[in-house]
């Protein structure tokens, strides 16, 4: 899949880049995101490896022009989430490296990926 439009598609998707870190986007009902770290992930946040409400996402080919609600292969994606709720009312964001692939996952494939990374 070359492009994921969160306004149209439904399902669970894994977004990959050259990094060990992958992003999981669940848009079956209320949108949520997980920044799933890997063994060579350098910067970590307290909200990593857990689901957080997805506020918005956009792709950017040049760091300035954006496509709201779309993740596209060949572009960086920025995810804005609200992981803290009332405990931390600030939104947090992650900017991925250039997206290399977008794949839809089954529930079984999601469970396997989470187990492989040591996340329950």
Any idea what the shape is? globular
Number of domains: 1
Which structural class is indicated by helix and strand composition? mainly beta
Gap between N and C termini: 27 Å
> What is the arithmetic mean of pLDDT?
87
**In this structure, how is the largest beta sheet organized?**
8 strands, antiparallel
Instruction: Tell me the radius of gyration.
Output: 13 Å
- Strand tally, please? 10
> Portion of residues in helices?
under 10%
Extract low-pLDDT stretches: none
Order of helices and strands: EEEEEEEEEEH
Q: Count of DSSP helices?
A: 1
**In what range is the share of β-strand residues?**
35-45%
Characteristics of this structure?
120 residues, 42% strand
Structure in words:
The protein has about 120 residues and is mainly β. The protein has one domain. It is built from 1 helix and 10 strands, in the order E-E-E-E-E-E-E-E-E-E-H. The protein has one helix spanning about 105-115, and strands at about 5, 10-15, 20-25, 30-35, 50-60, 65-70, 70, 75-80, 90-100, 100-105. The strands form 2 sheets. Strands 2, 3, 4, 5, 6, 8, 9 and 10 form an 8-stranded antiparallel sheet that branches. A two-stranded antiparallel ribbon has the order 1-7. Strand 2 (about 10-15) and strand 3 form a beta hairpin. The mean pLDDT is about 85.
